[in-house]
Design goal:
The complex is a heterodimer. Chain A is mainly beta. Chain A folds into two domains: about 120 residues, no CATH class; about 270 residues, no CATH class. Helix content of chain A is about 5%, strand content about 40%. The longest helix of chain A is centred in the first third of the chain and has 17 residues. In chain B, the strands form two sheets. Chain B has an 18-stranded antiparallel beta barrel. A three-stranded antiparallel beta sheet of chain B has the order 4-9-10, with no helix packed on it. The longest helix of chain B has 13 residues. The two termini of chain B are about 25 Å apart. Classes of the chains: A mainly beta, B mainly beta. At the A-B interface, loops of A face β10, β14 and β15 of B.
């Protein structure tokens, strides 16, 4: 064999070892790979900030195993080969320009991380926001199974809950549905900067509770039921919901919609649909609860927050979507990403608003999803019976599934 | 000895009714040319009922009702010997849960499963054919082929439909070392296929099918979304035999099966692989000769034999990266499951002639066996062993009219120990977890067994032969006979339910 060939083979061998140097545990036969974390902090935190009390959970999607790791450990971070979703929490400690030591709670997440060899994972940290206001307490988008058993009815609803200990006013609150889908089925690359989820929420439907700011008071621990069609669906199909006593309904001026005159309608600021707006019954969109700036009208909003965006589709075609509007993240008081476990990719909401997603099912288009609603967990109950619901901006933790008809 | 070997296996009821091929499946078909081989054909119908008050293995169900029609034949040809059989079995398997596949003992732990399950109907055809001949003065050779095809189905949700095809081919030779001793070797091939589908007709169905990966673990990624799966297996079989002139027999065998578990719903994705290794050994010794009624007995008066059987199963699950469409790239694998089964069985069969037509059979037996089953993450480890003592007593007679009958009774006690029981992540509300613990409780329970069986062969016609050179000597043998046999087995598990099994068989032998 020629010397050059031997050298080339040796280099190839060494190179292959360098790229794939996971270690098999002799006792357990589990192949572990070394994982290094590359931290990217938000602008206000300097790059040399120190991470303290850092914890990360790595969820391996094949086996369903969760590995908890200490990000401050002296030991190498080792994980078995797999496909991971990562969630991390930590405190960033740094010295600010006034030479004061500052600590900020930060979080990060990453999806579909393949660990097949020694790997570097990039974590984009953000500062966590604590919320105390109106929140989504329940969402029902799948609908009750229709009489033919082939799909869901439109007995969809949102329940908005006053999670504080004071009276809040709901008029002026908006409910918005994302333009982007959270699952792999619609993977595409967004080219327009304004649609960055860390800046704006890109919405394709926006409905607002009418009023002058003090018309719709909601007592602490009380809620509003906002439905698609405020009718008794159980009269059509046994097991469906009676929504005739809802607080509000969203009504499209279309023959396909039904208007209950006894239930006030939401104001339709925008909907991409030319007919009627149905919430996404596959539960793969995100929903935001929006407090618009005082005095803002739909005319002002639609004139100034157009959110058309350019993108490259999954098959590589250059496309434009002009049926979207932007909602600045600072207007959002609550938001929930929805998905199924199989296809989850990326939340349409900023991770500051929701770091994860509320799952409807293990698989895409699960026929068993009909009749199930997302319900927020109870965090505590006051002596007077008022419940404080869990709101950690982590929908996977905050929400559980329950039968819509209990 | 089936009843005793049942305890050695530790848990299973007699599966031979469910999954065996018909007839005399040989470890080395070439040996057929070296043993007593009388022309005979039998046509029989049989029925077997088994009821387990508590399932010994939940995934295997709680018993069965099976009926069969079986034809078995063995004939001398001009130059060799031929044997074969065909059988049709039909019936039902009772209350199978957490397993949608057939042949659980072959394909476990990787099965599509649900918590509901139910009974199934089964139909199975099996065929066997073999040929053996001498090749020169010292050599014999033989080949044998066996095929089993079966369907199992359930006509209510979850609607299981499994189709099994199981093919075995083996060939071997023996070579004489001296007048009474020989050496034999054989090798074989095993091809196994199973397609398993689950359907739901109820649109309100809330039963989730999941992929079980052993000891209560599941493959999380495809949870609830799998309905169509398959198994494809290829195996190799090898055997060696040495028979010495002094009555000693030594035999050893090694089997290897490699089986893929495939999810049809995901573009025929190979989810897991099973490697199955089996090593068998046998030492037997034949002392003395009963003589006279060898038509249905081996000749030995005393026959101690020691069987050793070790089986290791290793499960390897693939790990998949990000899917592109319905294509899932394999990025690695993990070897999380393995199981060892071992048993060593010493039996001394003693045949005590009372006279030339009656014989008493005594067969004490002692067995040590263990099962050691692991899953690595989450950590699950279940290990148990057993010591079984038993004996069988029998009496058999042939009358002057050539009517033959026999009756046997056996009693066994099995003292079990649960050596290790680790169940990380046990969730008391998960029925599947409860099933795993139940299986282990049954496996590690003391057991007491009773068995009784009888047979009777009633001659319809006989052949009488006289010898010109030996006046007065007359030889008579049965030409056609009615045959009937029945057996009953009862096993009582300490603090758990009993198993009762009854079988009857009747037919014609000619």
């Amino acid at each position: 064999m020629k010397t050059k060939t031997i050298i080339a083979l040796t280099i190839s061998l060494l190179a292959s070892q360098a790229f794939v140097s996971c270690v098999e545990n002799d006792e357990t036969a589990i192949v572990n790979c070394k994982v290094t974390i590359k931290n990217t902090f938000p602008e206000v935190i300097p790059a040399d900030a120190k991470i303290i009390d850092g914890k990360a959970t790595f969820y391996e999607t094949n086996s369903g195993t969760t590995y908890a790791r200490d990000l401050n450990s002296e030991e190498d971070l080792m994980l078995p080969v797999g496909l991971y979703n990562v969630e991390a929490r930590a405190t960033a400690e740094y010295v600010n320009p006034d030479e004061l030591t500052v600590e900020k709670n930060i979080r990060a997440s990453a999806s579909a991380v393949v660990i097949q060899a020694d790997t570097e994972i990039s974590l984009e940290w953000f500062i966590t926001m604590e919320s105390s206001s109106f929140i989504f307490s329940e969402m029902y988008h799948t609908g009750s199974l229709n009489a033919a058993g082939t799909g869901g009815l439109y007995d969809h609803f949102f329940r908005i809950y006053n999670n504080t200990d004071e009276v809040l006013y709901a008029d002026g609150l908006g409910i918005a549905e994302s333009s982007f889908t959270n699952t792999k089925t619609t993977t595409y690359e967004i080219l327009t900067e304004a649609n960055d989820r860390n800046v704006n929420f890109t919405a394709q439907a926006i409905w607002v509770i009418p009023g002058n700011g003090t018309d719709v008071p909601v007592q602490p621990g009380e809620s509003l039921l906002i439905v698609d069609q405020a009718i008794d669906w159980s009269a059509q199909v046994e097991g469906a919901l009676d929504l005739s006593h809802a607080d509000f309904e969203w009504w499209d001026d279309n023959p396909r919609d039904t208007d209950n005159p006894e239930v006030p309608n939401l104001e339709k600021w925008y909907s991409y649909s030319l007919t009627i707006w149905l919430t996404n019954n596959q539960c793969t969109k995100s929903y935001a609860l929006v407090r618009f700036p005082e005095g803002m009208t739909s005319t002002d909003y639609l004139a100034n927050y157009r959110g058309s965006f350019d993108y490259i589709s999954a098959i590589g075609t250059y496309m434009t979507n002009d049926k979207s509007y932007l909602i600045p993240n600072e207007w959002i008081i609550d938001g929930v990403n929805l998905s199924n476990k199989e296809q989850w990719l990326y939340g349409a909401l900023s991770p500051q608003i929701d770091i994860s997603y509320a799952s409807i099912s293990d698989i895409e288009r699960d026929p068993n999803r009909f009749g199930w609603k997302h319900v927020r967990r109870v965090a505590s109950t006051a002596p007077d019976g008022r419940k404080t619901l869990l709101d950690t901006n982590d929908s996977a933790t905050d929400f559980i599934l329950k039968r819509a008809k209990e | 000895m089936a009843a005793m070997m049942l305890f050695a296996a530790g848990a299973m009821a007699d599966e031979s009714w469910r999954y065996s091929v018909v007839g005399e499946n040989s470890s080395n078909p070439a040996e057929k040319s070296r043993i007593d081989f009388e022309n005979s054909t039998s046509v029989t119908a049989g029925f077997n009922h088994e009821l387990e008050k508590e399932a010994v293995v939940v995934e295997e169900g709680r018993g069965h009702n099976l009926a069969d029609i079986t034809v078995v034949t063995r004939q001398h040809l001009k130059k060799g010997r031929v044997w074969g059989g065909a059988s049709f079995t039909t019936g039902s398997l009772r209350d199978i849960r957490f397993n949608s596949a057939s042949d659980y003992s072959n394909v476990s732990p990787y099965v599509v499963a649900d918590s509901v399950g139910g009974s199934r109907s089964v139909q199975q055809y099996s065929f066997l054919g073999g040929y053996s001949a001498e090749a020169g003065e010292r050599l014999t050779w033989g080949a044998e082929m066996a095929y089993r095809a079966g369907i199992e189905y359930r006509n209510r949700d979850p609607r299981v439909k499994n189709i099994v095809s199981d093919f075995r081919l083996s060939a071997g030779f023996t070579a004489s070392l001296s007048d009474k001793s020989y050496l034999g070797a054989s090798a074989g091939l095993h091809l196994y296929n199973q397609d398993s589908d689950v359907e739901f007709y109820n649109p309100m169905n809330s039963i989730h099918e999941f992929v079980a990966t052993g000891l209560g673990t599941t493959f999380a990624r495809f949870y609830g979304s799998t309905s169509s799966s398959a198994y494809k297996g290829l195996g190799l079989v090898s055997n060696l035999q040495f028979v010495a002139g002094n009555g000693m027999r030594l035999a050893a065998g090694f089997d290897y099966d490699d089986m893929d578990f495939i999810l049809r719903d995901y573009n025929d994705l190979t989810l897991a692989n099973i490697d199955n290794y089996r090593v068998r050994g046998e030492i037997a010794y034949s002392i003395g000769n009963v003589g006279g009624i060898t038509e249905f007995y081996d000749n030995a008066k005393i026959k101690p034999h020691l069987n050793v059987d070790w089986n290791r199963r290793i499960g390897r699950e693939n790990i998949f990266g990000t899917a592109t469409g319905n294509s899932y790239p394999v990025i690695g694998d993990r070897q999380y499951y393995w199981r060892d089964l071992f048993d060593v069985d010493l039996t001394v069969e003693m045949k005590i002639p009372i006279d030339s037509r009656r014989i008493v059979l005594v067969a004490p037996e002692v067995i040590y066996a263990f099962s050691d089953e692991h899953y690595r993450q989450p950590v699950r480890h279940f290990k148990a062993d057993w010591l079984t003592f038993g004996t069988k007593l029998g009496f058999e007679q042939i009358t002057l009219s050539l009517l033959k009958y026999g009756i046997n009774a056996g009693v066994f006690y099995n003292a079990a120990n649960d050596k290790e029981s680790v169940f990380e992540g046990y969730d008391v509300e998960k029925m599947y977890h409860q099933a795993v613990l139940h299986n282990f409780e049954m496996l590690s329970s003391d057991r007491f067994g009773l068995s009784a069986d009888m047979f009777i062969d009633v001659p319809i016609s006989t052949i009488t032969k006289t010898f010109d050179d030996q006046p007065g000597r007359v030889f008579r043998r049965v030409k056609n006979s009615l045959i009937f046999s029945a057996s009953f087995e009862h096993y009582a598990y300490s603090h758990h339910g009993d198993i009762n099994q009854v079988s009857v068989r009747a037919g014609l032998k000619f």
